[in-house]
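Worked example 2:
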Amino acid sequence: MSDPLDAPPTQDEAEQARTRAAFERLSAVLSEVAAAVTSRVHERCPYRARDDRCTFAGGCVNQRRKASPGADAERLVWCGGDHQLRRRGA
């Protein structure tokens, strides 16, 4: 009887090579994204959405509540900052 651990791999070498190439392309793209994020981390608050809503669940000195029509008006919080991220020491 043959040992099941000695069975040939289920993927052939060509498929493994394609998988490795796809992983390398994905890794390169994600590295570029990470580099862009790292370079911009101090430019603006990461919790400020494109429509100036504040998505930070905690308290922030720049959060402003604006009255807007609709049932969700009390839950909408807007960013009143100048886009600059200022970290305070703990």
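The radius of gyration is 24 Å. Strands lie at 63-65, 77-79.
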